[in-house]
Amino acid sequence: MKTSDNNSAKFLPIDVKVPLIAKEVFDNDLYHYEYATEKKRWWFSWLDDYNWEPLPAKFQQKQSIEVSAEDVLGSKARAEEMIGKPIYFRVVSYDKDTGLVCSSSEVLPLTVTQAAPFITIKNIQSPLCNSNETTATVTIQLSRKLLGSLEQYKKNRGAYLGEVFNGFSFIKAGENEKEKAIGINGLPKDLTEYFLQHDHIDNVVLRTASVTTNYEIDIMGKFYYLDSNGQRKDIQLYTDDAQHKGRFTVAVPEPLNSFLYYKNDNQCFGESKGVIILEISGGTPPYKYIKNGEEPVLVDDNFVYDDNFVYLSNLPSGTYTFTITDENNCQILKNGVVSPVVVTITQPQIPITITNEIDYVSQIRGYGRKDGAIRPIIKGGTTVNGDYLVQLQTQTQTLTFSGTGRRPSGGYQASFDNLDKGTYTLTIQDHKGCILTRVISIVEPPLLTASITATTTIGCNQNNNDPNNHYELYNNGVLSATVEGGVPPYKYHWKKLGRRVPLQGNGEAIIRGLGKGTYRLVVTDDNKNQATATYTLTEPPRLMLDVTKSEMTCSAPNGGQATAIASGGTPPYTYLWNTGYTGAHIVGLSAGKYFVTVSDSRGCSVQEKVVLSYPEEVEVVSTIITPVTCYEGNDGKIALTLSGGKGAVNVLWYDAEGTLITQGTTNGGKTISGLKAGKYKAVFRDQSDCPVLEQFYEVLQPEKTVINIPSQITICQGDSRSFDLSTAFPSATFRWTDSTGSLLSTEPTFTVSTKGNYKVEITDQKGCKEATTFEVSQSDKILEVDFLAATNSYYNYTVKLVSLSHSITTQWVLPREVTLIKEENGAAEVRFPNEGTYTIGLKGFLDGCEKTVYKTLWVEKDRLGIGKENTSKEVLIDDFGIFSNPNNGTFRIKVNLKRASVIKVYCIDILGREAFPAIEQPEGTTFNIPVSNSRLSGQYLIILEAGGDIMVQKMIVNH
Fold this sequence. Notes:
Secre_tail; 9 domains; 959 residues; mainly beta; T9SS type A sorting domain-containing protein; Immunoglobulin-like; SprB_repeat; flat; six-stranded mixed sheet
């Protein structure tokens, strides 16, 4: 036996009947229904004991029945006492002879609960338009108010007894899943409080589907009651009856729509014969349309179409936008957006057009030639195979173009050639009968003539001795052309007969800058007609100038005279001396150069120079100064070569103190030798009465040689001090001696290991000598200098150098290209820029002793692939130490970073192999990593990688 599938919670409601359905295969008189209110449970369910009682007789001998709780229990009060409790049902059959139960169904338990009030949906107001936001308004009507005390509900909901509504859900009829598009507005915030007072709600707004749809209501509610022990409990209200669903229908009109039914475009460009017919459907008639924002127009019956068509005619070409509305002012929507109907009335893209409008008419090119032409290139309008009907009406006949006018580059070209002067009418017609007309005049130009006049003749003779090379003065001729007739504009071509080079300014009507010669002009008009003319230009005679002068003496410094004599050119003449004097004869001149310029009336000028001078001065032509060979030597020399002067020239020499030098002069004093470094004066005297000449000279010497050996040197026990002078004194000879003068060495290098006084003498390749002495003292202290460094490393890594000399002062000696990143507590962090070998030194100091230990490091490209080449790296590692170093395989690695980062530590042997797997540590700033590996022995590189920064240290393991 079972109940309805809708009664999934298996309730026996009060006030509403539910079905009890038995198996169908038996006769009706075999069906006997029993119920029990109590059940005694045993270990096995088939031993459970019930207080079975028969249902009233009206429910017997039927294959299915419908009962409510009060039907079974006899009264509503008894039913209310059983709320929340099960009632057990079964159907049995009895033996007709014995009256005993011979068969029974499975037991069906149903729990007693209160049935919710029935719901009816009234006053349904469906949406007027079909849109993406369709809504309907309804009234929700209950069959009764909710059971319960409003006062108790408001005062203490925790003690409230009665019905409670938790909410309504609207779903499509026949579906279980809630329709997401349907929302509800207008419900009270507290449904229970409202329905304890009222049995309906008006103006509930539903967001519905966009098509006509059937809906039903899903009620959610509970019933609060006191059980037999007086405890407050709740149970779900029964809401599975058909009258709980409130089924109803929301009618949504069909979407308003419109499409282009017919269109007629304009055949000729610019005409107004277009037709548009639109068909409208959906929505609620009658319809209206708005064209391009104009006033609304009602769509009504016309002589051809009914009231769902829009008919428009006599339309010019263009785009027409129609907004369609129905009786409810609904509009056409596409994807939720108002979508007007857009129709374009077209026309030929362009009218019949002569694309070469500017030059399709060729006028007659020359007088009497009769070569006029009309050759229009045509586009636009409507054609078949690109053809047009083209005709030309002359004064006597009509010509029709019959050639192939289509052009590969586009367009259609008609040609009418060999036309005489006169008036013509050109007519062009396309396939649709559209016509373009042009009235054209063909004219003939007058006869072309040309002549030449000289507006400026040549001013100067080109052979004049012009001081400024005034080329333009004998190339300043100007010729002008006079042209009449033909077709302007004109082109001018000037040519000088006998000359191939083109003339400057050629192509203009006036040509300038012409020299003597015969010139020919060819004038070409715009139609290639030509006319010719010639003209000859000549020069004036050559302008000449001669200048005479008087002799000068030193005793008469202002007694000079000169006279300028001009001839040729175009008189009269004017004179100008560089003194400002403007006469031909000038007096009172001192020694010097004078220039005179003579100019004629055309601006031509020539210039001459005259030099008034004393007897020729002594002049030192060349000087050879030989410097002193050695510092403070006296083998300097000065040798002079002289010219000029009057008669014999005597040379006297003086030193820097003004003392006359009488030794070492030869060749009349022109050569002097045996000089020390210093400044000297030479005085030159000839046989004239003019002042003597003085010149100053300086003899140089090499700089003093400095031997860079300290005068006091201290060495510690077991140490020595070496000197290498080969770089400072290349190609020199050396003598190292002790305090007794005994020769110790003749090499540029010398090593001393015992105390005493020493001397070194140096003779360079010029024979210059220099010497210095130094004293060596010996300390009883022992100076030990050593450091740890990875003899193999990688460039762009940070390498740590560790000093093993802790009780003395040390100083690192690094190549210039090596970067010192950090130096602290005798250790140094460095970075090498490139592959190669680098020599690193550590200099130690103790009680005046000093010693430097050098080691060679081989730097190569990263073989491990840890670093990235040619990338800048942030210096992130602040401190990196190995404790202790050297060690026996057990040690600690301590790291401090400038900011938090993960780290990775590698141990590489001298062959580049990993001695043990890399150690990785999570992000941090301080690390103390213990390592113990008894298999380690020898020299290793410990490589630290942190955030792209890399540092390398050498480690020695001894057992």
